[in-house]
Records
---
Amino acid sequence: MFQKKKQVKIRLHYNEMSLKEGCSLTLKGDQAHYVRDVMRAKPSDAVMLFDGTYGDWTCIIEEISRSGVLLRVEALSGEYMKTPDLTLCISLIKPDTMRSVVRQATEMGVTVIQPVLTEYSSVRNINIQKCWKWAVEAAEQCCRQDVPVIKETMGFYDLRDLESQLILCDETGKGEAPARVLCGVENLGIVIGPEGGFSEKELLYSEAFAGKMSLGSRVLRVDTAVVAALSYVNEHCLS
Amino acid sequence: MFQKKKQVKIRLHYNEMSLKEGCSLTLKGDQAHYVRDVMRAKPSDAVMLFDGTYGDWTCIIEEISRSGVLLRVEALSGEYMKTPDLTLCISLIKPDTMRSVVRQATEMGVTVIQPVLTEYSSVRNINIQKCWKWAVEAAEQCCRQDVPVIKETMGFYDLRDLESQLILCDETGKGEAPARVLCGVENLGIVIGPEGGFSEKELLYSEAFAGKMSLGSRVLRVDTAVVAALSYVNEHCLS
C-alpha cells in the first residue's frame, strides 16, 4: 500500500500544441490545479499526456508554481491505439444522467456521441462543452488514447441521414437478440431512447433505417441500457 | 401522450401479508405517500403489487385518505417468473456508487448481492437496510417480480466458502474472454473489486476458487464494470 500511495499516477489529455520528445510545455488552470493541489505531485514526478494523435507521452515535472506546472516531454510510450468507430445516439436526458452516460460510454469505447431529440425526451437542451469535459475526464481515467466527439443535437427523424448502420434498443419486446442483430455489423450506431422509450410513430418510422435490438425482459434505466448495449457490441462486433 | 399521462402505472413491492383475490389491504407510510401524493392516483385506479412469490397482482384503489390507501386485490396477472440464480460479490464502495450498483444489478437480474471487504475497499461499512430499499425501488421500476437478497458483508478470503462458481473480473490483463470463461457455468457469482482493483495477494489467492474474466483493455469504474460483466453473463449463461 505504501508504494501504491507514493507512485504518482497522473494522466491528462493535452491538445494545445503538438508534442514531441524534448519539448517543454506549461499546464495551466484546472490541469495545473489537479497536478499540484489534488495529486500533490513534486518536481521529477512523471505525468502522462495523451494528445489523441500519437498516444501516451511520458513527461517529467520540471517546476511547479502558482501560475502553472512546467513539463518536459520525455518519450512516446507505446503505440497509439485508435478506438474503433462506434456511435452512440442518445436521447436528450437530464444532466445528471447524461453525465453518467457520457462517462460510461467513453469507458465502453464510443467514439461519437450524437444527442437526439425524441418525442419523450425529458429535456430539450444539452451543454456540449460540459459533455466534452466529462468525456475528457473519463478518457483520462479509463486509459483511452482518444476522446469521443460530442455532436450537436439532431432530431430523431434525421437519424436516417447518418452514415452509420443504426441499431435501436427497443423495449417493447420486438427487438432481436444481440447476437443476431449485431453479427457482422460495421460502422455501428446504437440508438437509445429516454425513460419512457420511443413513441409508436418513432418505432414505426425507424424501421426504414434501423435494426432493432432487445436488451431483455426487464425495463432498464437509460444508463444501464447504454452500458448493456455497448457490452453486447464489444462482444459481437469488436472482439 | 394524453392517454399515456392518464393511465396510472404504479407498481409496488408488498410482503406484509399474503395476497389473494378479493382481499383488502391498506398501504401506509412511504407507499401511501407515493400513490397519493407523487402519482396522484384516484379511487378506482389500478395498482400492481408484487410479493416475490406469486407474481403481479392487479389491485384497485377503494379509498384514499391521509392515513393510508385502501386496496382491493382483483386478480393475479401473469405467472411468476423467478429470476435465475445469479450472485454479485461487490467490494464495499462509497454509498453513492453502491446505490447505482444495487439499482443496476437489480435491473440486470442479480438475485443475491454479497458485499465484500477487500484490501483496497474505500469504505468498511454498508447500510444493508438502505441497500434493500434501493433494490426494492429498482425491482418496482424494472418490472422484476422479486427483489435481490442483500447479504451481510464478508471478507474477501471467505469467498471460497460460497457455493457459487465464482468468476472474478480482473483488470490486470490476465482474465479470459467472457465467452470462454462463462460458457456453461451455472449458479454463478461475479466478483467485482473496488476502484484500484484487487491486491496481488488477493489475485493470487483467488486462483484457488475463482475463474478470471477480462472486461477489456480500458479501466472501468465499478458501476460500469458491474453492468458490463452482467451483460456478458446474460449473453453467455442465461440467454
---
Amino acid sequence: MIFRQLFDSVSGTYTYLIASRQGGEALIIDPVLEKVERYLQLVRELDLRLVKAVDTHLHADHITGLGALRDQTHCITVMGEQTAADVVSMRVAEGDRVSIEGLSLDVLYTPGHTDDSYSFLMGGDMGRRVFTGDTLLIRGTGRTDFQNGDPRQQYDSIFNKLLKLPDETLVYPAHDYKGDTVSTIGEEKHFNPRLRVKSVDEYVDLMNNLKLPNPKMMDVAVPANVHIGLHQDEIARRGWALSAKEALALCGRAKIALVDLREKAEREKHGVIPGSLHAPYPDLEQNIATGGVLHELAEATGKRIVFYCAYGERSAMAVEAAQQAGIASACHIEGGIAAWKKADGPVTH
Amino acid sequence: MIFRQLFDSVSGTYTYLIASRQGGEALIIDPVLEKVERYLQLVRELDLRLVKAVDTHLHADHITGLGALRDQTHCITVMGEQTAADVVSMRVAEGDRVSIEGLSLDVLYTPGHTDDSYSFLMGGDMGRRVFTGDTLLIRGTGRTDFQNGDPRQQYDSIFNKLLKLPDETLVYPAHDYKGDTVSTIGEEKHFNPRLRVKSVDEYVDLMNNLKLPNPKMMDVAVPANVHIGLHQDEIARRGWALSAKEALALCGRAKIALVDLREKAEREKHGVIPGSLHAPYPDLEQNIATGGVLHELAEATGKRIVFYCAYGERSAMAVEAAQQAGIASACHIEGGIAAWKKADGPVTH
C-alpha cells in the first residue's frame, strides 16, 4: 500500500495520498491549493491515477485543492451531503463508502466542527486508520464556533462514534500545530485534555468559552471553498447541455442513449433513470476512445449520447472529453439526477 | 510496534520515537531540545521506558535533546565513533547494532554531510525503514560545506550504500522543509534531482556550488551539541571516581568488584577488564535496589563496587544511582575502558 502524509506548514494542514499499489488508482484527502503541484508530481512519480479528491469538511483556514485537482486530473470530488460547497461531483453520507481500486473508506458523519464534517475509516493489513478532519485532533478537538459548528453535536460525534472505534485505530487529523503526526483512539481517549469532561454540558461550556480569534484565512477561504464547482454554464453555452426538463421531453425517443456515470452504490441508493445505460466515470477514457463501447454505440446507432451523474459535474467533464474524442453528439443533463428528480423525472430502484 | 514521527517546525527537524510494544523499551532518533517535554509526555502516555537516544550526526541547525533526555531518563546516548560531541555514552560504527527490547537498528556509516553522519536501518513486519539523517533527504541531500563535510564521501555513502537498499525501503530523513514526511529508496533513486549526476565529479561540482548561507543556529548549535557530556568532574569531586591508573593499582585486590555496564556486543568488540562482572546498564535499577544482585553483593562481601563502561558516562550515572540506593562504596572508572586502555590496562576478548 502507498500511504503518504503531506504537510502544508502555512496552514498546518495534513493531506493524505493513498493507493493500494504503485501504478494503481489513488485518492487524496484534504488537499491544499498551494500544494497541488507537489501532489501531482508525486502522483506522476508513483505512477498513480488520481481518481478521487475528498474534503473532510468545508475548510476555513486554507483554500481547498479539490477544484484544481479536478481541473488537472478530472478526478471525482467528494464531500458530505450537507456541504455548502456549490457542486462537488459526489456527495456522501453516513454508511456510504468511498472506494478506489483495492481499497475503500467507510464514511462516518461526525458533525460539530462544522455541520458538514465527516470522518473516513480505512481498514487494511497495515492497521485500521481513521481520518478525523477537524473533529478529533491530536490532544485537541476542532473549534465549534462558526460555520454551523455545534459543541453538542461534536461531543456526540467524538464520544459516541470515534471513541467507539478500537483503541489501536490510528488517528490521522487534518491539522496539527505542535509537531505530532499521528495518534491512536486509545491515546486520545485517555490523554486528550478536551475530552476530560464528565458530561456533554461540561464539554459545551468548555468549547463555548475558548474565545479563539477567527482563522486568518477565513474571509478568503470560506467563499473560495464554497465555489469550487465546474462551470456547467460554459458547457451549456457550447450547446452541450440539456436541462432536466428538456431531457425529460426527449426521454423514450429512440435516438437518445442515456448514460449513467455514477458508481454502483450511488445508483442503488439514489435510483436510476429508467432505460439508461451504466458506464462508470472512472472507465470513461477507454469507453469514449475509438474502439470503446460508447464511441462504437454512437457511431453504430447514430444515437445521441446523453451523460448524467449525481449533480452534473462528472457528466460535464465527460461531455468535454467525449467531444474531444470525436463523439460530436455528446451532451449531458445539467444538475444531474438531482435536477431530474426535482423536475419529477421518473426513477427506478 | 509503536512508530512516531514528530516534527519541530522551527528547525524543520523530524524526530522518531520507536518501541516494539506499549509498556516496553523505546529509543528516540534526533531529538530537539525544545521538544523534550513533548517526547517525555508521549513516553509516559505510551507507558514506555526511554533507554536510548540517538543522534544521526552532530547537528548544526538545532540543539540536540540528547543531554536533557539523558538527565531526565538516564537513557544511553548514542552517536557515531567519529563524533566531536564530547562524551556520549555509546559510540557506534559501521556494522554495529543499536538494540532495545524487541528491535534493533543496523548501523551504516554514511559520511559526507559531516564526518560523523550515520544512517540506521530497521527491519520488521511493517516494512524496512532507513533513518538517513541529513545524508539523504526527500528529493535532496544534506549540504557538504562545513563540519568536515565531503561531497565525494557523500556520493559514496548515497550511491554505494543507501541506494543499494531494496527499492521499497522507506526513507525517513532528519529534515524536510517542503511538507513531505517519507519517501522510498526507489523514489529517490529515480526522482531526487541531486542524484541525476553521471559521475562522482559531477556530484562534487554540484555540491560545491550550492552557495548556501550558514544555518541560522550554527554558531549556537554546534558548540552546544559538542558539549553534551555528563559532568564526570562532579562525580569525582564527590570522591566517587577512580582514574584509570588508580583503578589499575587496585585491580586484583580482593575487596574490589569491577562491574561492566556495557552491552554484550560492545564487550565482544572492545574487550573486557579481566575478572570483571557483567551487569548491563538497562538493568541497573533492579540490580542496585534492595534485594538486587549488586546491592546484595556489596552487603554480603563488603566489596567496593567499581562500575565501568565505554567512556565513563553510563558508569557516572550508575554511581549516582547506586549511592542513592544506599551502596555507599560505589564508584567508577573515569573515562571508562577507553581511559583504561590508554593507561595500558589489560583487556581480554
